[in-house]
Specification:
two-stranded antiparallel ribbon, 25% helix, 10 strands, alpha+beta, single chain, 10 helices, elongated
Length: 357
Amino acid sequence: MGGPSDPPEGTPEGAPGGGEDEYRSVVFDESFVRAARLQEYSAQERITDHAPAVRRRPPLRRSGLSRQALILVVLIAVAFGTAVYMGVRHPYRNPAAESPAEPLRTTVIPLAPQGKVPGATNVEQLYAHSPAAQFRPGAEGVPLPASRRTAHFSDGQVVAALLTAKDYIVRSALDPGVLTGGQTRRVRVLLDSGQQDQFDQSFDRPTADGRHAPSGWLVRFDPARVKLADREIRVQGTMQAAETDSSTLEVTTDHTFVYALRPAGPDRNTEASLFTVRRELHFRFDRDDLRLHQTELVVAHVQAGPHSCAEDSAVRLRPLLAGQTAKEAAPAGTDPYATGSTPALCGSLAPGAQPKL
């Protein structure tokens, strides 16, 4: 006997067993109902308003991207931005793509006076009666030249090279802390990383071998012997930039620095004298150096006086002060049989290079 839901004649032959099995795969859950575009009016609504049997429902408002989609979009944006940033900045050097830094080659020549070193208690009087009378003080004496782009470097890159060279000159020859034996880090950080070991060895184990002479890297006096009589060093010189190849810029500088010095000690009434240093420096820049504000200092040619030829000028400059004379006017002898030695270089300081008092 069939149930209330069965057809009077029973289930038709060949049909699935039970009427419910025919619609078992169709499920009308709540989300399906809410998403339907058509909605049937109730019987009361149709009687009262004479409305049609169904009405169209407004589309559902979406709350925006799902959380998973939003996270995915953010991750893609971050990955893309990181790739662009790393591609542009490229903070790591590729050792295979760059040539090793060339070591610095140094020549330091002391200039011996032909008589007593002139002196005066008034520093301005010394300058006024010397060839440095028209020199400018400090960094003002190291102006940048007019710059032009080259075949492979832009105006900005040429200016960057000149600015780095100027910073090196100022820090290594005009900084009172460096001049009087203080920290050298401010000079070191401007050097290409490939030269920093050579720089460190020059100060840890200085030697006059043309490679590890501190006087080639910077100007430094012995604070136990001399002190600055005037912190405004007088300077005059030139700078010029040129392209050596498609990947290298070179800046050549030639500056004369004039220092007013007194013997170390508390007495300020002692006479001051002038000490002159001429530095010809050759800087080299690749594209990484330009970006990192660093340089390779490849050549340093230094002349300094009044300085005794008997004193080692390569390790530390030892100026002759007011009233002093050179121990020997002639250069020291060179032994051609001594292996590993370099020729002793010394010059004579022209009388016109001294103040005329």
